[in-house]
Specification:
This protein is of the alpha/beta class. Helices cover 41% and strands 21% of the residues. It is built from 8 helices and 11 strands. The strands form 3 sheets. A 5-stranded parallel β-sheet has the order 2-1-3-4-5, sandwiched between helices. The protein has a 4-stranded antiparallel β-sheet with strand order 6-7-8-9, covered by helices on one side. α2 packs parallel to α3 and α6 crosses α8. The chain is globular.
Length: 224
């Protein structure tokens, strides 16, 4: 039975998450401030943390930094009511594995939690594509003897492309996968991050299929 640490200071939301996870066979613990959250993560064995950012005593980003500085690789899914891009990027670059904006669907939270738990078990720790290997825990790509760090959205975009290598994904599919369902279809941020990845991995790695979208080159496809 997987153990979930729910760090949330709003009783209604904490109870909602707790009931949902327990109905699906998880063991849960709730804490409502950042100090206790850091202590629980250090002193007890949990498989997953659901972490609110707006906490009393210590904020969520500080708690995240604390547990990652100790080398703790427990998957962390951030919950935030804050819509600022900087906050989301800071969460991912600080070591969060995923994030969801409030209000959220519990079914989606559960699906993301199960995915991150599978990855943490090592069944899906890396994805190979020809000479490239995407490390899902370290957020890096290895190319021969060279390792490249992929912060935040760069990693999120790379993960989607590696998981669907050789498959053409539309702009909207990529925008929704990386920036969420409310992503502006007219935004150019996808093109910006594709450019970032090409600079790090090579111009030839990601193809733009005119009028259809993007794909990781099919001749790079390996086994994951």
């Amino acid at each position: 039975m997987a153990r979930v640490l729910i760090v949330e200071d709003e009783d209604r939301i904490a109870s909602f998450i707790k009931k949902g996870f327990e109905a699906n066979g998880f063991d849960t613990t709730i804490v409502d401030d950042g100090v206790r959250a850091a202590d629980e993560a250090r002193d007890s064995a949990f498989d997953l943390m659901i972490l609110d950012l707006g906490l009393p005593e210590r904020d969520g980003l500080d708690v995240l930094a604390d547990i990652r500085s100790r080398g703790e690789r427990m998957p962390v899914i951030i919950l935030t009511a804050k819509g600022e891009v900087d906050t989301t990027v800071a969460s991912l670059e600080g070591g969060a594995d995923d994030y969801m904006k409030k209000p959220f669907s519990f079914e989606e939270l559960l699906a993301r939690a199960k995915l991150r738990l599978r990855q943490a078990e090592g069944t899906d720790s890396a994805i190979a594509a020809g000479p490239l290997t995407l490390d899902l825990h370290r957020h890096t790509v290895t190319m021969g003897s060279m390792t490249v760090d992929l912060p935040g959205r760069e990693f999120a975009l790379a993960e989607v492309l590696f998981r669907h290598q050789g498959q053409v994904l539309s702009r909207q599919e990529l925008l929704e996968a990386v920036w969420g369902g409310d992503a502006d279809p007219s935004s150019k941020k996808l093109e910006v991050y594709v450019l970032y990845l090409r600079r790090k991995l090579g111009d030839e790695v990601i193809e733009n299929i005119r009028g259809q979208g993007y794909r990781l080159r099919p001749d790079l496809a390996g086994t994951s």
